[in-house]
Amino acid sequence: MSYSLSFAEDFFSGTPDGEIGSDDIRKLYPVTRRPQNVVQALVSNEYYCPRTFRRMVKEILGYDLPKVDFKNNAHTPPGLLVDESVFYELLEAVKKYDTCDTLTPPIKVYLNEEHSVTVYEDTEEEVA
To answer: N or C: fewer beta carbons within 10 Å in the chain?
Structure first.
């Protein structure tokens, strides 16, 4: 069963007003295995699953990202080759598709029929 995304703005951006901010998105949303909002889930997906992230961007936004395996390339920090606007566009795709698998955490949020990210409850987990 699927549900409409009937959540407060902080579910999407981690802020009550839904504003992501103009600072470095990767500093505002540190990489984690248990993201607490959709933007953090997208940032973490870029780091932990770069091939899946590239495919998701290609299929949803229609353009190719550079091929970089961030975990095995110490000379290329995560995100240097991915423009931050990609995260904003993917967040808009989430809102447009408007589908999740449950209303209680962990919540799988879909960007389309094939791609999703998972948002967890607020936890005391350390970042990567």
So the answer is: N
Dump pLDDT digits (tens) for 91-114.
999 999 999 999 999 999 999 999
CA atoms of 128 and 115, how far apart (whole Å): 23
Is residue 128 one of the residues assigned to a domain?
Answer: no
Mean pLDDT check: name the lowest of 27-31, 61-65, 123-127.
Answer: 123-127
Q: Which of 50, 62, 40 is nearest to 112 (CA)?
A: 62
Output the CA–CA distances (angstroms, integers) from residue 6 to 2, 74, 111, 121, 123, in the order listed: 12, 40, 15, 16, 22
Domain span at 103 = 9-119
Residue 13 corresponds to which tokens in the numbers above? Answer: 């951006």
The token pair that represents 67 in the structure block: 């091929």
Residue 126 belongs to some domain of the structure: no
The two structure tokens encoding residue 33: 């295995």
87 in Cβ contact with 42 (< 8 Å): yes
